[in-house]
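Hi R.,

Here's the chain you asked about this morning:
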Amino acid sequence: MNQTRSPRPSQEAGRERVDLIDSRTRVRRYLAPVLVSTFINMLGVGLVGPILPLYASSFGVSAAMVGLLVSSFGIARIPVNVPAGTMAERAGRRALLVGGPLLISVSAILSGLASSFGQLVAFRLLQGLGSALQMTAGMIVVTDISTPSNRGRTMSSYQGALLLGVSVGPIIGGLVGEQFGYQVPFFVYGALALCSAAWAFFAVPETKDLAASAGTRSKGVAATSPAGWREGLGLLTDRNFLLVCLVSIAVFFTRSGTQSTVLPLLGESKLGIGPEKLGYAFTAIAVVNFLTISVAGVLCDRYGRKMAIVPSCIVCGLAVISYALGHNYAHFMASSLLLGLGTGIGGPAPAAYLADLDLPGGRGLTMGVYRTISDLGMVMGPILLGAVSDRFSFSSALWLNGVLFVVAGVSFGLLAAETAGPSREKRARESIAAG
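And the predicted structure, written out as tokens:
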């Protein structure tokens, strides 16, 4: 009995070394083109970030209606994320990486031409549809080319490209919006999205076959069948899946509710912050993200996903509450730096944790369901925090958001199973020894 067990750890290590070499080759060949596409697209997202609430306010609407506009982006993504995931399994990842930015390009230009608030909401919905296609496909590509041993670092590279675009975009958008009007950044956004589509068409390879070679193709096919959909619904009974979704909801809730809705309105009404200074603050958040994201990837690969996720949630919660306590631009900037640190620490860990779980339904369906639930946070954040701001105060909305983040982090730390790092390796060795 012992003779049959003894070689198994070395065989397992050998398979891991082969997987690691193959994964490194995949990263070199496939990851870099996707990073460029992501950077271009997110540069456009960053451009309109500090402008959108102010542009909406120019139509004479309330904070709650501004929140509705910001939420419309996520509202459009919710019914599209799961079909986008199954579409990526059927038609391939490239089709979505091209089609998504094309739709964004058209809708962004139309947003700049909007003559009413209703039109702006409609065009923002179209941007959400395009984003669902592009972002879901991008996350599946990163999952295709990574393994549990390097997934945190690979995800951090993807997040780094995303954050680099978001970090450069706000300061450019703020300057352009202040000098040329709130509509012009949307025209630039449209041009950048068109460039992203062209780059994906000519430079990004297809990774669908990589998933097939890893034995996941059958899962992907199942995800497009009725049985696959039932498996997808079964995800909602998995505790670890729900806990990582709670963390992601808190992230999206903050990104759309606090950063894209409350902070611009708070800055303008309470601190006299215009688009340019707001752009500096948003850029500071993304720059700190970018500087910490690589360390975060190494951290969650070496010590486990929870070691990144839990501290991240707590720091982000404190940062959001800090905004509520400030009375000047210096404090606003300090809170932004703290928020950037918190989101940077946890950056790649939730997506890496999700990929580690290897849940039924295939990568496309799993990622689609995950992004759908996450987008609920994007939808709820602006509407809820906008309403709280109208009824009570901006500070009350920020306190609500901060508490949500802390609760998500503590819940994940106490209840979620670890999927990487020393504890996971120890459990694997014990399982091998037990036969």
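The domain at 26-434 is CATH 1.20.1250.20 (Growth Hormone; Chain: A;).

Let me know if you need anything else.
M.
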